[in-house]
Amino acid sequence: MKKAVSTYVYVKQRLHPGLLEGLVRAGAEGIEIFAARGHFDYTDRAHVREIANWFQDKGVLLNSVHSPMFSDTEWGRSGAPPINIAETDRKLRIAAMDEIKRALEVAEQLPYRFLVQHVGNGGEDFHPRKFEAAMSSIEHLRAFARPLGVQMLVENIPNELSTPEKLLELLATMHFEDVGVCFDVGHAHIMESVAGAFDKLKPEIRSTHIHDNSKDRDSHRWPGEGSIDWKESMSLLRSAPRTPALLMEIDGEGQPNIVEAMASAFRKLEAAATTSA
Predict the structure, then answer these.
(1) Taking Cα atoms as reference points, which of 66, 62, 52 lies closest to residue 11?
(2) Of 54, 78, 129, 174, which is most buried by a Cβ count within 10 Å?
(3) Cα(270)–Cα(153) distance, rounded to whole angstroms?
(4) pLDDT tens-digit profile of 113-134?
């Protein structure tokens, strides 16, 4: 599996080539850019061009972009509502899709394979109208993404709209074979179990998010710092038929040496994979 990492580890900093260089030194063969405007301003053509030039020069794979969660630079603290494709208010849902399209348009300068998309917000309850709104949004965004060479992936997150069962129902109802799943190991551990969620979603998995927790909250810790069985998890991930990237998504705030910690985490995952073989 290709080793990859999300720039979420630096999400409180402006993304620049120096940070990307560090991720590659740590062993990353692919990268996911987290589309938060204060980190990666996908609306700023100069910033996009700066990052695109680095990827072109280095030949590193841009595996994916994580769809924006807020339209402002302050994670909603300015009063901007969360971006929610399951919003039942049509005006708010259209505004959310417009913001996501801005992140998709990055592919014109900076090609990438997948857009990772949340369905609803964290902790959101299920309602048939929300489910229908999400399907309508994904259908619209997929049509916008396809000419740009981008595939949509929905992610299992801790809410009632994004359980493995609901994601599979959503994909089956839409009949779009090119819309898949980004399998989040940490979220699966919180919601039910890694093995249980993986068994259901396995055929649809195109990419992953790798992080640990103690099954109490979505803490995005390094593998080995929580209670996930990484020997079991690596064995499961290696059996995924589409060979997804092994993509770490870590909360790096306040951590002193992210490059060394990431290199160590990759070694731990490799060791777990070896013992599970």
Answers:
(1) 66
(2) 54
(3) 25
(4) 999 999 999 999 999 999 999 9
**What is 3-276's CATH topology?**
TIM Barrel (3.20.20)
Domain residues of the chain, as ranges? 3-276
pTM exceeds 0.85 for this model: yes
Q: What is the pLDDT of residue 274?
A: 87
Question: What φ, ψ does residue 133 adopt, rounded to 5°?
Answer: -65, -40
Nearest to 55 by CA among 7, 11, 103: 7
- Count CB atoms within 10 A of the CB of residue 196: 12
Distance, in Å, from the CA atom of 185 to the CA atom of 75, rounded to the nearest integer, reads 24
Structure token digits, residue 2 = 């290709």
pLDDT for 74 equals 76
Residue type, 264: S
**Whole-angstrom distance, CA of residue 269 vs CA of residue 125:** 34
